[in-house]
């Protein structure tokens, strides 16, 4: 293994010109030429997610990060779908282009540039490329670029229309031409309210042209233009604008119009350039390069692309299990963030990871309120969290009250950020998160007659285990969280509650016949997902290699092969890699994504038996297998440690760039 100091950079040059589709995949591009069983990809910038569709010139969904309102069908909050504002009706010689009258359809996802380009031909009249992006440099902004290559002289009609989802109401649409001296600025907008009236949502667009602007006109609920094109002369225009809500700005309609006006003054190429540069900055500061296995390279980079698409630094937002791809799990925040997605972000994009912590810190008072509601001290974080920070789990689900390890997961994530940065000022600022969660646990445990401690009546990480006592992962995560809190107190010269130490020393983890028990009285039942195995990684509670092997061999066969979520195989891969078994590590690495991949781009589904992509949680686990397994990276109290690592037989080399706060590069050969 080689370590390369800050500043070393390998620049990939596999970049295509915008709007021109690839005829094959490569390490930066995913190519599809079939629309069968199509599952789209999110073009996200961390603030808005725009999901691609196989239908020409339209998108499937727009998801707004951190914006929640009620959903009457389940009685809890749900992340809001926004107005689809980049859709286009395009007619050539008075015949509208539809899904069933095009040929030679293909779609290319450029991961390096955050672009989706759909290409097709229409009769013998034209070839068309349609590229969409959520502008990485401008968080509330997006653009669709249309390129038409006429095969004959044609007449084109292009009209922008907006789709308002059913959950928005009080819809108002308007088209007006603003004027400032000689500048005429046509703006098309839609304003609506969320279902329960909590927020206003507004989207606005305008048209951008190369050269002379066309005269826009309104046709019902659409705005567009007509133009005659000459055979062989390429023609390009764009729909550009933004979507804003009253969660972020006081007047979302005016701000969305400003997004359109800004785009109009900047032009297509400037907006596109800023977007590409912002994506390039991300890849330059955190990337994984696999030589010798193109399929693995694509899938790993696609997982990274999606994680990067679902969050922005300094927004104080977190990531839901489905990111910005859908309303899956109502867009709520779970342990999926802290345990499965956060570790990769911590290693490669610490500022993104910090945003996830800011999200929790901002909701500490609500976590304290929840502890009080249930008669405990300190802070008890909700199993499902929305913008309010209150418990958002459906009332029928036992997880909302009893899956309590989330409180330890949050605490551990905070400590790990400190270990990476060694930033004592930050630790001082966030000390209350560690202290209050520790106080919760010492009020939650019960003392046994022999002086040991137990945690009774919980739902484990293995969610098939309900109303159990001394769940292995719950207890072990509490042990680690308490020990971390003691270390933080000593660093900050804060008083150490003696109960923190007593409980961390005497909280029981049961074993039977040499195997760590999933919970007290466990008799070998099928488990939903990894639980005991998490005690060796990412926790540090079981460190004996023989015990790790025994637990691996036992529980690998107990995980539900049909409905178990994707994460388990990722953590098993890490453990086998650390034990030096590269064959099993690689087998579990492949198992962590392959059964869960959906066409045509390989988006993650939660389980082998489900169709609910994109499951960012599973992507996080697969990436941990690469970084913390094959890559040899380890989180320690002194920061990231770089162990030898291990290379699968199929790979020629593994390079991880941008690791830690000092941007290290690791090469495994």
Automatic annotation (TrEMBL):
Keywords: Hydrolase. GO terms for molecular function: hydrolase activity, hydrolyzing O-glycosyl compounds. The keyword Hydrolase applies. Residues 42-245 form the Glycoside hydrolase family 65 N-terminal domain. Residues 301-522 form the Glycoside hydrolase family 65 central catalytic domain. The keyword Hydrolase applies. This is Glycosyl hydrolase family 65. It comes from Flavobacterium glycines. The lineage of its organism: Bacteria, Pseudomonadati, Bacteroidota, Flavobacteriia, Flavobacteriales.
């Amino acid at each position: 293994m080689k370590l390369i100091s800050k500043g070393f950079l390998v620049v990939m040059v596999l970049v295509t010109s915008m709007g021109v589709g690839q005829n094959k995949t490569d390490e930066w591009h995913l190519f599809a030429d079939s629309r069968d069983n199509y599952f789209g990809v999110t073009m996200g910038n961390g603030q808005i997610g725009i999901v691609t569709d196989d239908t020409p010139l339209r998108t499937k969904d727009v998801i707004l990060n951190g914006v929640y309102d009620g959903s009457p069908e389940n009685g809890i909050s749900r992340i809001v779908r926004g107005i689809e504002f980049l859709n286009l009706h395009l007619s050539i010689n008075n015949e509208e282009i539809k899904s069933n009258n095009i040929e030679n359809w293909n779609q290319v996802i450029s991961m390096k540039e955050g672009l989706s380009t759909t290409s097709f031909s229409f009769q013998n009249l034209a070839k068309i490329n349609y590229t969409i992006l959520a502008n990485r440099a401008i968080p509330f902004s997006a653009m669709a670029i249309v390129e038409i290559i006429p095969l004959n002289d044609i007449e084109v009609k292009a009209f922008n229309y907006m789709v308002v989802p059913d959950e928005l109401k009080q819809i108002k649409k308007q088209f007006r031409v603003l004027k400032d001296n000689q500048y005429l600025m046509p703006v098309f907008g839609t304003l609506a309210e969320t279902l329960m009236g909590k927020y206003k949502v507004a989207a606005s667009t305008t048209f951008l042209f190369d050269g002379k602007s066309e005269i826009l006109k309104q046709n019902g609920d659409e705005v567009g233009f007509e133009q005659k094109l000459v055979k062989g002369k390429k023609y390009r225009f764009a729909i550009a604008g933004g979507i804003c809500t009253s969660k972020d700005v006081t007047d979302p309609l005016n701000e969305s119009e400003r997004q359109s006006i800004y785009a109009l003054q900047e032009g297509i190429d400037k907006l596109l350039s800023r977007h590409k540069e912002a994506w390039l900055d991300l890849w330059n500061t955190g990337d994984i390069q696999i030589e010798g296995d193109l399929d693995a390279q694509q899938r790993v980079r696609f997982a990274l692309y999606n994680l990067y698409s679902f969050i922005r630094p300094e927004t104080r937002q977190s990531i839901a299990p489905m990111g910005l791809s859908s309303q899956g799990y109502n867009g709520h925040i779970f342990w999926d963030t802290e345990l499965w997605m956060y570790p990769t972000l911590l290693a490669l994009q610490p500022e993104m990871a910090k945003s996830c912590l800011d999200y929790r810190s901002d909701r500490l008072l609500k976590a304290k309120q929840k502890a009080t509601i249930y008669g405990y001290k300190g802070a008890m974080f909700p199993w499902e969290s929305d913008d309010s920070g209150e418990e958002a789990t459906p009332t029928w689900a036992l997880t909302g009250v009893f899956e309590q390890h989330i409180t330890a997961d949050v605490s551990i994530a905070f400590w790990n950020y400190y270990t990476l940065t060694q930033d004592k000022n930050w630790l001082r600022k966030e000390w209350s998160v560690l202290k209050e969660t520790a106080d919760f646990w010492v009020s939650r445990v019960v003392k046994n007659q022999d002086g040991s401690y137990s945690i009774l009546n919980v739902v484990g990480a293995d969610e098939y285990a309900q109303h159990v006592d001394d769940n292995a992962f719950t207890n072990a995560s509490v042990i680690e969280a308490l020990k971390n809190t003691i270390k933080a107190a000593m660093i900050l010269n804060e008083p150490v509650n003696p109960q923190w130490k007593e409980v961390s020393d005497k909280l029981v983890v049961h074993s039977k016949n040499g195997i760590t028990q999933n919970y007290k009285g466990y008799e070998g039942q099928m488990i939903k997902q990894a639980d005991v195995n998490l005690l060796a990684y990412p926790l540090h509670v079981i460190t004996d290699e023989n015990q790790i092997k025994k637990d691996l061999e036992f529980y690998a066969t107990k995980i539900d092969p049909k409905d178990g979520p994707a994460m388990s195989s990722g953590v098993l891969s890490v453990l086998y890699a650390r034990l030096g078994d590269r064959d099993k590590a690689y087998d579990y690495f492949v198992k962590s994504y392959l059964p869960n991949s959906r066409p045509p781009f390989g988006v993650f589904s939660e389980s082998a038996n489900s169709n609910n992509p994109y499951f960012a949680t599973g992507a996080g686990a697969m990436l941990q297998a690469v970084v913390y397994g094959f890559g040899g990276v380890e989180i320690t109290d002194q920061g990231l440690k770089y162990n030898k690592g291990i290379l699968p037989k199929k790979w020629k080399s593994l390079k991880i760039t941008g690791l830690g706060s000092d941007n290290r590069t690791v090469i495994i050969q």
